[in-house]
Design brief:
Blueprint (H helix, E strand, L loop, with lengths): L1 H4 L3 H37 L4 H24 L10 H33 L8
Helix pairs in contact: 2-3, 2-4, 3-4
């Protein structure tokens, strides 16, 4: 965003490519490892929470789809002078969506994962 706001369009495009790759890696890893693990854990230990987890997982997936749609199909790409203002608005919204997803993962899913990994003292 810094480069985009400064109208350094080429640098912004380069950083956007790096950003897109990192977001894709995060989503792939979280879908493959975190969400699938928690789905199995909840099914086994908290079956009454499966519906809520499925809804949360679907909501997070929809955020991912929305973000990737923006990254790949935005009418504000490529970033050039005529798309500058639209790019800034659209990608600020994308940042808010991404931050919301990360905040919710950290607040809801990470504690769930930590709880699932707790060691139980079975010596007593």
């Amino acid at each position: 965003m810094k480069f985009a706001k400064e109208k350094k369009h080429r640098l912004a495009a380069d950083q956007l490519a790096v950003f897109t790759s990192r977001v894709a890696s995060h989503f792939h890893m979280s879908d493959k490892e975190l969400y699938s693990y928690l789905k199995a854990f909840i099914h086994q230990k908290y079956a009454n929470r499966e519906k809520a987890f499925t809804e949360l997982s679907l909501e997070m997936k929809n955020i991912s789809i929305s973000i990737f749609y923006t990254l790949t199909q935005s009418s504000n790409l490529p970033l050039i002078e005529s798309t500058h203002d639209g790019f800034i608005k659209e990608f600020e919204l994308l940042g808010e969506q991404l931050q919301d997803r990360f905040d919710r993962e950290e607040r809801v899913l990470f504690p769930m994962y930590e709880k699932s990994r707790e060691l139980k003292d079975i010596s007593s």
